Amino acid sequence: xxxxxxxxxxxxxxxxxxxxxxxxxxxxxxxxxxxxxxxxxxxxxxxxxxxxxxxxxxxxxxxxxxxxxxxxxxxxxxxxxxxxxxxxxxxxxxxxxxxxxxxxxxxxxxxxxxxxxxxxxxxxxxxxxxxxxxxxxxxxxxxxxxxxxxxxxxxxxxxxxxxxxxxxxxxxxxxxxxxxxxxxxxxxxxxxxxxxxxxxxxxxxxxxxxxxxxxxxxxxxxxxxxxxxxxxxxxxxxxxxxxxxxxxxxxxxxxxxxxxxxxxxxxxxxxxxxxxxxxxxxxxxxxxxxxxxxxxxxxxxxxxxxxxxxxxxxxxxxxxxxxxxxxxxxxxxxxxxxxxxxxxxxxxxxxxxxxxxxxxxxxxxxxxxxxxxxxxxxxxxxxxxxxxxxxxxxxxxxxxxxxxxxxxxxxxxxxxxxxxxxxxxxxxxxxxx
Length: 433
Ligand code: URA
Hints:
Order of helices and strands: HHHHEHEHHEHHEHEEHHHHHEEHEEEHEE
Bound molecules: uracil
Number of strands: 13
Low-confidence stretches: none
Mean pLDDT: 96
Largest sheet: 4 strands, mixed
Distance between the termini: 37 Å
Structural class: alpha/beta
């Protein structure tokens, strides 16, 4: 086989065999195929797409390129969840204790934040003592004993995807549905999931800017799951503005605590309960979505959900007192306000710009090597549909820096305020099974 022939074949829009895809993926990972040939190959996929069989084969090839996590010693159906990335997305912290409470094992592997999006691991590390590096034995033992554990991603999971993603980043081939779908699903499958619930975000803060694209990505990922025998459901959710009111690590932990105590914002409560309900369904805890949703609401109202979060924090070495006293979480030194320059209704909040502002305040990383300030972040005082008067506070900014000019300017740009009320949109658009 020769790489050039495979590139030529895809250039002419002919479907590739499993062996041809494997030849390209493994060859590139081993350094036998150079960047320029992989770049050309990725561009042919960008323009000509791939059919569902090709995408499943690409996913399997990514999985095979590295280690896989063996969760067979965990009893029950292991259901994972994945969000395609948003701003203020603290859904994982909310669903882990909820799903575990229903008896479904949650063996979660999560990532760190980069750029405008945050990562669950960073958020949890804002809790003093919380350990995200557990030995495989401790991880499995915790899931068997408590039905939940969370760790950072291990180093050698899907190295092919890691190398190809870096090349996509500099060859303008990130926004290709077959490439995104195989990249995401390979990591979930390599992490040992039996079943997967995907939270596909659509809107200004998401990869997918419109519903048609989000639907196509969701369908593609569900088809990979079916092809590779992993029961998969995708929930398409709104990311036209940050989820909830809080962005930033300790800020988001505080807000997750609120949701689990029944005091959460409507948007993230609905998204979290929907994702958790489908995880419970795939895990076999309930037969019907409405029954699962109701039961999860009961777990919140009874206080059990908060107790389970405390347990998660305690078993991973963190200080569980933060649940009753969130003021124990790290705080930044300074608070600044961004004020509205006009009267009107908030029509849009560009989530990506809010995410970038949070990063500038110290809550996120520009590069992987940057350190973060757990107390830095943004609290959105006005959200889409709210009326605001000139001079009223739009957002509070928390940071150790003394100058927030750039972040404030971005927040002002993020808000679109008009005389008319905007059309209201659902929090959850569609479910693809
Ligand atoms: N997230 C991933 O893991 N991969 C992509 O290609 C895009 C988003």
